Amino acid sequence: MTAVLYLAIAIVWGSAVCLWVFPNLAQTTKKSFDGRQLSVSSLFVLVPAWIYLGLIPMTWCVYLLSYLFRNTGDGMRVANPIAMLLFLAGAVGMYLAARRKKRHITDGMSGLKLSRAEWVFLVLVCALAISLFWTTFRVEDNTLYVGLSVFSDFSPHLGMIRSFSSGNNFPTAYSHFAGADIKYHFMFQFLAGNLEYLGMRLDYAFNLPSLLGFVSTFSLLYVLAAKITARKWTGLLACLFFTFRSSFSVFRYLGEQDGSVSLWDALFGHSDFVSYSTHEDWGLWNLNVYCNQRHLAFTLGVLLLVLILFLPGMYQAFERLKREWSGRKGFGTCAVFWIKRSLLGREGWRVEEPVMAVTAGLLLGMLAFWNGAVTIAALLVLFVLAIASDRRLEYLIAAAVTGALSMLQTSFFIEGNAVSTTLLYGFIAENPTFFGVLDYVYRLTGALLIVVAAVFLVADGPGRYVTIAFSAPFVFAFHISLTTDVTVNHKYIMISLMLLGIIAAEGIARLWETKRVALRAGAAVLVLILTATGIFEYAVVLNRNQKIRNLAYDMNDPLTGWVRENATAQDIFLTSNYALHPVVLGGAMLFDGWQYFAWSAGYDTASRDFLVWQMYSADNSEALKQLTKENNIRYIVVDQSNRSAAEYELREDIIEQTFAAVYSQGEGEWNTTIYDVSKPLR
Question: I want to staple 397 with a disulfide (CB 3.0 to 4.6 A). Which of 174, 357, 485, 511 is the partner?
Answer without folding.
Answer: 357
